[in-house]
Write a structure and sequence with these properties.
heterodimer; A: alpha+beta; Aldehyde Oxidoreductase, domain 4; Aldehyde Oxidoreductase, domain 3; 4 domains; 23 helices; 33 strands; 28% helix; globular; B: alpha+beta; Enolase-like, domain 1; 4-stranded antiparallel sheet
């Protein structure tokens, strides 16, 4: 299998340098690469600077298509609050989720997983389990068909084979069982005897960086470090002198998404074609990854995303080993395989927003100008080769004018939870680190933290590449958030406002810049079919994961085409047999990938309709004995009516113009002239109880520059939801392991403690609209940004309340009480 | 996850349940109420070990008519073991005479669990220790040979009275009932008996495999709560990390009588701090005969003299002290 290891391209300069042009072409088709383009552009920016020209279609210039409707000042469809089309299905329970789907004769599967964080599998004895009535097949290293022995996911070292001989994590699959019922499969898993040879495990990120930590694979770095970035240098950070220097160590723990619907699939073969219905954020990526793993052509794999998915937040962007197991089990048993992950498996075996530690040194002058920054980021990428640390650099580079800057990044592998996107991988950490440091610097020089930020904002463009920002709304975000929280009236010196005995009021704010939401270079395709009766069908592979993307797709197509929303339809589901890839619903990008596809396809259909309209009005005139030759430029289409611009009383409903069904197709090359940034600022008021250490959020304001809100209702909900999740990560959530055994401590909803509805803050969402030149109708995506500013905003508010800096997330009561004791 | 198959019997009388227990004595058999812990927790999560086999037989006692319900006599209130927590929360006489218990019941889990969970199940649920609940930790309480909390992450573990095993008792009604000087009616092969809650809960020194006096062939049928002395002051506090579906980090049940402004007699019981609901006699003694408002601060600090925090849970001593003070003051009326 001549597959390129996408993650290694990002992390290993020598590996990247050795790739051929054909390798780069293959890489551009790789689902993991596409995820990095959307989700972790920082991770690949270095390699792109050197080798990016080898990628097909590489272009730094203006794109094609788009833009022509941007100048419109009034919109008919977008900008209105529209209830999502799947809403009724979701709230009535009639929606068909993968979890509900059954097939005659299907078997249930279950996985036996490693209970050691690092071990060799010496022997797997399935004899007892096989005797249990109802067990059909147990698959493991010993009987895996030879064709699949080299199949792995991700980059090598540590390697994740279908059944690895050396396992690097608790939860690594050792055997899978297909049985008549889940009960039987569960019982059988516990009757399999495994002989392990335990190996030394690296369980602590900081210890993992030491040279004394035993290596687990060949590496030029100390311990279990997988990557160290060459330092980023701007100006002369070594020799820059500032009046005051502040030092902050910020950190955050590992979190999991806690999606409502557990990962699950239904898999079956139809002669030589593999079919899978799957809880996914990207049906086409799943298809391509399955085809790759099973060595099948892409058109022999058929994936359906049912349109009702109990959310994703990033960890459903690709496949895991279990989905490949499902395909093999189904093939070998000749039966459909129903596979429901357990909550433990969703918690432990999927990806996580990783643990970070940031060492931040910021030099500022008394007048409030920033002189220099030296920021070192360490990330725990878990039991895999991955990168996360340098993703935290983005806002450190873009948000403020920092003339002298040194950035370092280290990614450490541990035999623990694997990193990945959870409403972003790294930006929440970068914002936590930068914005708690900025706050501390403002207090250090005695300046209002909001004024300090406004004074240092970078509103031009990337200081190093010189690529400009497009219409940045960061200043409005900060000032509107500050105004809504009543910053001027409510901000006070630390620990000076007691509201009840032992309870103190505090207020904090944090700004945010991240690279998500533009779509970047990912696929942006789609088709728009106009039926003879004038109705319109959108054909899009934009996966809806509960965010309302399918509704957004229709709104964009309706606006671009010039028909009312009532004339539009779109399936809730995505079927890879019937759609073209428009990349995944991740990286906050779908409104600008799928949405771009809809926009361009609708414009293409519109052009065809205007041509037909021109011909029809020409023929109408001819019938009346007039000789005119009209072109598309003389005709308009609005609200589903085709009319003559010169005489709008001359009009036809769309159905009288279309005749035969027509299809509009998207052709699009992205506009790469911009540094594309999502901007935001959150402000929060808290009450901190110095007896119990409890933190109560009493007011929360979240301002986001969305470019242009396509569906403001959905945009506000994105913000509200993101703030709930952010607050959970600040107040209670952290996925723990036992430091001795490496076993998970709290992989369940009771002990992990995501916030309840009684605890969750309801954010006041403020939509700041600064339309972007690169966005569909000026839009910039919004999925991930609301997750980021919460941690520093709350941390800053806690400082204002009780005068104690707590920059290690989550801010649990033991930290508050310890801080108060000094 | 799904559990192993089991036999389920719907007992219709107490005697039938006793007979079923006797008949299945050789197999792992459990009496079940609402099942939110035994079935939805222990069995679903395969919490098992040498000393804790997964039940093969469940005897449902919620199908016994007489076991559910609350009856208020002139001198006491009797609550059947299968009475739901919601019914306790809503009961007029309970609210009037012993609001401490209504408040404690209302602080449990969620409305869904309270509608289904019974007082018997709440009192006899197994602890929430994450080592005990984790399938791969073979701890003392499951018949294993180690306590992982001693050197592991013990932020939620016992600060008082731990030895061998450092669980904290998970039941809020237990804490409240101990404060209310209530007693349990127990039935079994040997007949019926009454045990005061003072003696009902047992620590790891007695038997690490269980948390109460119930023998395998016995079950709880009723809870009897005497009327508090006239003029009793009482209050309930439960501190949790989130307001729904969470156990007590520290809870305090306080009930006392006054002689003027002075503490006459009473009980202060803590939940979440010890393997059994913990009666803070050291605090009670410090208050005896003292002006409550004036003495509570130093009396509450007495809890530090009995606390033996572990490596990560010293903050719970602060919480216990602070919440004792707040709860007693709340009982006084603010």
């Amino acid at each position: 299998m001549a597959r390129i290891e996408a993650m290694r391209v990002a992390l290993d300069a020598e590996y990247a340098a050795a790739l051929t042009d054909a390798d780069w072409r293959d890489l551009s088709q790789d689902p993991e690469w596409a995820q990095m383009v959307a989700e972790q552009p920082e991770l690949i920016s270095g390699v792109l600077a050197t080798h990016g020209h080898k990628l097909p279609g590489a272009d730094d210039g203006a794109g094609t298509g788009g833009g022509e409707l941007l100048a419109a000042t009034t919109y008919k469809v977008i900008g209105s609050d529209i209830a999502r089309m799947q809403g009724m299905g979701i709230v009535t329970g009639r929606a068909e989720y993968t979890e509900h789907m059954t097939m005659p004769g299907m078997l249930f599967a279950r996985t036996l997983r490693s209970s050691y964080p690092h071990a060799k599998i010496l022997n797997v004895d399935t004899s007892k389990a096989e005797k249990i009535p109802g067990v059909h097949l147990i698959l493991h290293r010993g009987n895996l068909p030879a064709a699949y022995k080299d199949v792995k996911l991700g980059a090598a070292d540590p390697t994740r084979f279908l059944f690895s001989e050396e396992v690097f994590e608790v939860g690594a699959p050792i055997a899978v069982v297909a049985a008549e019922t889940e009960h039987i499969a569960d019982d059988a898993v516990r009757q399999i005897d495994v002989k392990y040879q335990p190996l030394p495990a690296s369980l602590d990120m900081i210890a993992g960086m030491k040279s004394s930590t035993p290596k687990q694979f060949t590496t030029k770095y100390d311990g279990t470090i997988v990557s160290e970035d060459p330092p980023f240098i701007r100006g002369d950070p070594e020799n820059a002198h500032a009046d005051t220097t502040v030092h902050v160590v910020a950190a955050k723990s590992t979190e999991q998404h806690v999606a409502l619907e557990l990962t699950n699939s239904l898999t079956w073969w139809d002669s030589d074609r593999l079919n899978m219905t799957y809880t996914s954020q990207w049906a086409h990526g799943v298809r391509n990854s399955l085809a790759d793993a099973l060595k099948l052509p892409q058109n022999k794999v058929h994936v359906i995303q049912p349109g009702y998915v109990g959310s994703g937040y990033g960890y459903r962007s690709g496949i895991d080993l279990q989905e490949v197991h499902a395909a093999i089990l189904s093939q070998m048993t000749g039966r459909p395989i129903k596979w429901n992950y357990t909550r433990y498996e969703d918690f432990v075996t999927r990806t996580h927003r990783p643990q970070f530690q940031d060492d931040m040194t910021l030099g500022v002058n008394k007048d409030g100008t920033i002189v220099s920054g030296h920021f070192i980021v360490v990330a725990n990428v878990g039991a895999q080769r991955a990168g996360a640390a340098d993703g935290s650099w983005f806002n450190m580079q873009e948000l403020y004018k920092i003339p002298n800057l040194k950035l370092e990044a280290i990614d450490v592998m541990t035999n623990s939870y694997k990193s990945g996107p959870y409403r972003c991988v790294s930006h929440p950490n970068g914002t936590l680190a930068l914005e708690t440091t900025m706050e501390r610097a403002a207090y250090a020089i005695g300046m209002d933290p909001v004024e300090f930020r406004l004074k240092n904002l970078n509103e031009v463009g990337d200081p190093d590449t010189k690529k400009p920002f497009s219409n940045p709304g960061i200043r409005d975000c900060i000032t509107q958030a500050a105004q809504a929280i009543g910053w001027k009236q409510n901000w006070h010196a630390p620990k000076t406002k007691q509201v009840r005995p032992g309870v103190y009021h505090g207020i904090g704010l944090a700004a945010h810049a991240c690279s998500h939401g533009a779509g970047n270079d990912n696929a942006a395709s789609g088709q728009v079919i106009v039926n003879p009766d004038g109705t319109v069908q959108c054909i899009s592979a934009a996966n809806d994961i509960g965010d309302g993307q399918r509704t957004t797709m229709m709104m964009i197509a309706a606006e671009a085409l010039g028909v009312p929303l009532t004339a539009m339809s779109i399936t809730p589901y995505v079927d890879t047999d019937l759609t073209t890839d428009t990349s995944g619903t991740f990286g906050s990008q779908q409104t600008n990938t799928g949405g771009r596809g809809m926009h361009e396809a609708a414009l293409d259909a519109r052009k065809q309709i205007l041509d037909l309209g021109a011909a029809k009005f020409t023929a109408d005139a001819k019938k009346q004995g007039q000789t005119v030759t009209l072109t598309a430029a003389d005709v308009d289409l609005q609200d589903g009516v085709v009319f003559l611009k010169s005489d709008p009383s001359k009009k036809h409903p769309l159905k009288d113009v279309v005749g035969k069904p027509l299809v509009g197709v998207a052709r699009y090359r992205p506009d790469n002239r911009w540094t594309r940034v999502a901007w935001a600022a959150h402000a929060v008021e808290v009450e901190v109880d110095t007896v119990t250490g409890s933190i109560q959020i009493t007011k929360y304001v979240a301002a986001h520059d969305v470019g242009k809100a396509i569906n403001p209702f959905a945009a506000r909900q994105q913000i509200e939801g993101g703030v709930v999740m952010a607050a959970g990560a600040v107040l209670t959530e952290q996925l723990l392991i036992d430091s001795a055994t490496g076993l998970p401590l709290n992989p369940n909803l009771l002990d992990y403690k995501p916030l309840s509805i009684k605890d969750a803050p309801l954010a006041q969402a403020i939509l700041v609209e600064h339309p972007k030149d690169y966005g569909v109708f000026g839009v910039h995506g919004l999925g991930e940004p609301p997750m980021s500013p919460g941690a520093p905003a709350i941390s800053n508010a806690v400082y204002n309340a009780i005068g104690v800096w707590i920059t290690e997330m989550p801010i649990t009561r033991d930290k508050v009480l310890a801080g108060l004791k000094g | 996850m799904s559990m192993r198959g089991f036999e389920l019997y719907d007992a219709t009388t107490v005697q039938e349940a006793v007979d079923l227990l006797k008949k299945n004595a050789k197999r792992p058999t459990k009496v079940v109420g609402g099942g939110s812990d035994l079935v939805g927790g222990v069995m679903k999560d395969w919490v098992q070990g040498k000393g804790m086999p997964i039940p093969e037989v469940l005897i449902d006692i919620t199908t016994i008519k007489d076991l559910a319900g609350i009856s208020a006599a002139s001198d006491s209130i009797t609550i059947g073991a299968t009475t739901t927590l919601s019914d306790i929360v809503d009961h007029k006489d309970v609210k009037q005479r012993i609001p401490l218990l209504s408040d404690a019941a209302a602080s449990i889990a969620s409305p869904l669990i309270r509608n289904f969970g019974t007082v018997g199940g709440n009192l006899n649920q197994r602890p929430r220790c994450w080592f005990f609940r984790g399938e791969d930790f073979n701890c003392y309480k499951k018949g294993g040979d180690f306590c992982f909390s001693v050197t592991g992450d013990n932020r939620y573990h016992a600060i008082i009275g731990g030895e061998l095993c450092y669980i904290v008792h998970p039941s809020d009604t237990a804490t409240a009932l101990l404060a209310l000087n209530a007693s349990a009616k127990i039935v079994g092969a040997g007949g019926e008996k009454t045990v005061a809650f003072d003696k009902y809960f047992t620590g790891p020194r007695v038997d690490v495999l269980r948390e109460n006096v119930l023998k395998p062939d016995e079950f709880l049928t009723q809870v009897v709560i005497p009327n508090p002395a006239a003029g009793s002051k009482m209050a309930w506090t439960k501190l949790k990390d989130r307001q729904v579906y969470d156990f007590a980090l520290v809870s305090v049940a306080a009930i006392f009588t006054l002689d003027g402004t002075k503490w006459k007699d009473g009980r202060i019981v803590l939940g979440g701090v010890s393997p059994v609901p913990y009666r803070a006699e050291v605090v009670e003694n410090a208050l005896k005969g003292q002006d409550v408002k004036g003495a509570i601060k130093s009396a509450a600090a007495q809890i530090r003299t009995v606390a033996r925090p572990m490596s990560m849970n010293a903050y719970k001593v602060d919480l216990a002290q602070g919440l004792i003070e707040r709860t007693v003051l709340a009982a006084l009326g603010g």
